[in-house]
Each structure stands twice: as C-alpha cells, then as structure tokens.
Write a structure and sequence with these properties.
Elements: E1 4-11, E2 15-18, E3 28-29, E4 53-54, E5 64-69, H1 70-74, H2 82-85, E6 92-95, E7 108-111, E8 114-115, E9 120-123, E10 126-127, H3 141-144, E11 150-157, E12 172-178, E13 186-194, E14 198-206, E15 214-226, E16 233-246, E17 251-265, H4 272-278, H5 289-311, E18 344-360, E19 365-382, E20 459-464
Parallel strand pairs: 1-20, 9-12
Antiparallel strand pairs: 1-19, 2-19, 3-4, 5-11, 6-7, 7-8, 9-10, 11-12, 13-14, 14-15, 15-16, 16-17, 17-18, 18-19
Length: 465
C-alpha cells in the first residue's frame, strides 16, 4: 500500500506572562460646567441622573479580536467545521464543497484578503500549520478535535500576536480552544439524520471532579454521508480524551489525546468551461466504468496519432490506432480527458497528544509550556487514464490481466492535474515534483482491467517550535 507517514514532535513556545504591567483604565469624571441660566428643568418623572462617571474598559488587545463561542457552534448542524462557524464574522470568507465544511481539499478561508497560507492556526497552543491540503507541519482542525469539544474560536485579524505558535500568521490567527472537563459527572449524547443518508452521532462521558481537582472526559464522534452529487461516501471516526489536574492557585496540568480516522471521496474540481459543458452537478464518473474506459482509449488514440504525425511529417497514412472502434472524439460534454476521473479519494489517520503545564510561580509571574506529538498516515488517490495498466494486476473477477495496455510514447505521457488552489500556489497541485518529497505513479486504463489508484507517498519527520 502506498502511504504517507508524518511524524512530528515538538514543544510549543514557552510563554512567560507578567501581570501588573498594564495600567488600569482611567475613569474620567465629567462635571457639568454649563451656566445655571442655560439649564433646563427636568420633568418630575424623569429618572435620577447618574453620578456623571464614565468608565473606559481595556482588554489589552492591540488588534481586532473576535470570538465564536460553543453556544454559537450549537446553532449549526452537529459536526460542522468551526471554520464555517467563523464565516459570519466581518472580513472572514469561507468556502467548501460539502455542507459540513470539513472536506479538506476544497476548504478555503481568508481574512481580509489574506489566504490561509498566510494565517496561523493553533489548538490549545499546538500549531496546526496553515491547514492547506497535505501540509507537513500540522493537520486540519476537523481532524484535530470534535466540534462539540471546542469551547471557543478566537479570530485575530491583522498580523498575529508574537505569542502565537505559528510561522504563517502574517494575515491573522485562528486560535481554537477545547472545552475544559466539567466539575460534575455528566453524559452528553446527540444524533443526527438527514438527506444523502447522513448519520452523525456524538457521545461524551464526563468524570466530574473525582477528588483533589482531578477530572476528565472521553468522547466519540461518528459521521457518514453520501456526496450530495456524484457517487461516494464521506466517513469519519473521532475520539477525544482530556484529563486535568487542577492545583488551584498554583496552576494545573492538562493531558489530551485526539484520534481521527477519515475517508472521503473527492468532488471533481470544476472550471467555468466545464460547468458550461457539463453543468453545475458534474462530478467524477465512478458509477460508469465503461465511460471511463472509453475516454481513456480515446485519449490514447489521440496521443498515438499525434506521435505518428510528428514522426511522419504530419502524414497519417498507414496509421493504426491502438483502440479500434472508439474514434478520436470525446463523448458529448467532455472537452478533455481531465474533465472527470473515474474516482478520487483521500484517507487520513491522525494521532495528536500533548501535555500542558500551567504554573503560577508568583502573583506576577506565570509559566505555560505545551509539549505535543502528532502522527499522520494518509494517502490521496485519483484514477487517470495516462499510464497503461500493467499485466498481472487483478481484473476484478478473481483473475489477472494477461496483457498490458499499449504504451504511449514518452513525450505523450502527460503529467497534468488540473486541480488548483488559487490562494495556495505551493500546494495547488497534488502532484508536486519529486524533490518536494512525493513519488508520482501514473496509469492508463485497460479495457478489462480494474482502475488502479494514482498514488504518492510522503514521509517526513520534523520538530516544530
């Protein structure tokens, strides 16, 4: 199996905070200096005037900061990405191809024109990278935590604070905070059923304070839903566990372990030209193998005749196509071989764990340190007709393919994937150069062969500050 393994160990930046440095807000006393003759007698039933004191409150923020609370999340469909919840804030733009906003390949978020590659994301002080698809320095928030376990999402627009554990917070930060365990034992459960065979379940067991300030919770979330167009399923299992030892005024120690196992079938990317030809509900054709095989054969015929003409001064006399009977014209609505693929999908399995020490050393000095570990194993696959199916692979009927698909000439082995992220040029194409740490394998269709996966793997081990 072609897979990708990411191992990440790190220690979040230690934060020292000193209280008492900020002066309290100054209350300004306003006195009525008007002349007596200019005063107007108030009605007898008017309320008594205030003492004239105006209090100005300061929160120590030098930038615009807004927070979406757990109560705001509860108004959305259970399982909705917290990124979708912050879309209501001014200056925030969020887009996704699915209703939950959790389909990573299509997810886009921007703050005042800064795209997500220029934003910083953290969960309880743990860096999540820029949350672009396949990033090697973090993971998506929809896999890092169950949405019901988030207490708040804080959005800081403008340059991020220096204390944020991120290297991409030029345009702002989104800081996710998980909920603290309850002081009382509790059991919370919810279930959702909807269109497209959507089933969502969530349960959380709270231990309550079992003595000496020790408390925790264990929760599980499950989601399965069919794609709203095309064929395929989005499925996810998640487990979140958190344990807190509260020492009162001296501080606390918090440990957490989060697990996610996600499988999603892709939606095909659409250009304006594809929409004009195939409509808004166009998608991959995983329900029609015969059509996928036909498109692959037509592609190979076109590539073969182009190579023949190049070698024979443009002449086609004597040319025999590799696939007779299918011609050279794509089916109605298809302008190229990349208009739709037979199938595309991604799988991700993540473990995220960490320990946070919050110590109040003195009345004016506190120390907060977070150590964490992240392990990710995943694969993104899509089936294209570029490379011929080799002999010996399973034929889908219990046997194997005896003859390989006819090969194309080398200069016609197109390596092109029209999946672009306009706001993320570095990650705009899943098929990155080998120097970027990915191996690319392409394959074409065989008329009687099962469609193999187009896969790549990546292995990286790094430490994050």
């Amino acid at each position: 199996m072609i897979a990708r393994n990411w191992l990440m160990l790190g220690v979040a930046a230690t934060a020292l905070s000193v209280s008492g440095l900020a002066a309290p807000a100054v209350a300004q006393e306003m006195r009525d200096m008007a002349a007596p003759e200019a005063s107007v007698e108030a009605p007898a039933d008017a309320p008594a005037p205030a003492d004239g004191e105006i209090v100005v409150l300061g929160f120590g923020q030098t930038r615009q900061v807004q927070t979406v609370t757990a109560a705001d999340m509860e108004r959305l469909t259970p399982g909705t990405s917290p990124l979708k919840a912050v879309a209501k804030l001014p200056g925030v733009n969020f887009q996704s191809a699915d209703a939950f906003g959790a389909y990573e390949w299509s997810t886009r978020i921007s703050l005042r024109g800064f795209n997500q590659n220029q934003l910083g994301f953290t969960l309880d002080g743990v860096p999540l990278g820029d949350m672009s698809y396949g990033n090697v320095n973090g993971l998506h928030i929809s896999r890092a935590a169950i949405s019901e376990n988030l207490a708040a999402t804080t959005v800081a627009q403008g340059a991020g604070a220096l204390g944020t554990a991120s290297t991409s917070n030029l345009g702002g930060t989104l800081q996710f905070t998980s909920r603290a365990p309850s002081d009382t034992a509790d059991l919370v459960a919810s279930g959702t059923y909807g269109s497209n065979d959507t089933i969502r379940a969530f349960v959380r067991a709270e231990s309550g304070d079992i003595g000496g300030g020790l408390k925790g919770y264990l929760s599980y979330g499950f989601l399965t839903t069919d794609k709203w167009k095309g064929y395929g399923v989005q499925r996810q299992h998640q487990v979140n566990a958190k344990l807190v030892q509260d020492f009162g005024e001296r501080g606390s120690i918090t440990g957490f372990v989060n697990f996610s196992d996600r499988r999603e079938n892709d939606y095909q990317d659409l250009s304006l030209d594809i929409i004009a030809r195939r409509g808004l509900r166009a998608d991959n054709i995983s329900n029609d193998y015969a059509l996928a095989a036909r498109i692959g054969k037509i592609y190979q015929n076109n590539a073969a005749i182009a190579a023949y003409q190049a070698a024979n001064g443009g002449a086609t006399t004597g040319f025999t196509p590799p696939w007779a009977g299918v011609g050279y014209t794509y089916p109605a609505g298809f302008g190229s071989v990349d208009d739709a693929y037979y199938d595309a999908a991604g799988v991700r399995r993540d473990w995220l764990g960490g320990v946070t020490f919050d110590a109040k050393l003195t009345d004016a000095l506190a120390l907060v340190s977070t150590s964490y570990y992240h392990h990710n194993k995943g694969q993104g696959s899509w089936v294209t007709p570029y490379v011929g199916t080799p002999a010996g692979v399973p034929d889908g009927s219990g046997g194997t393919i005896g003859a390989a698909s006819p090969p194309l000439l080398p200069h016609h082995r197109v390596r092109h994937r029209p999946r672009r992220q306009p706001d993320a040029p570095d990650a705009g194409d899943r098929r990155q150069p080998a120097g970027a740490g990915r191996l690319v394998r392409e394959q074409r269709l065989h008329p009687s062969a099962p469609l193999l996966r187009h896969g790549r793997w990546h292995h990286a081990q790094s430490q994050r500050p």
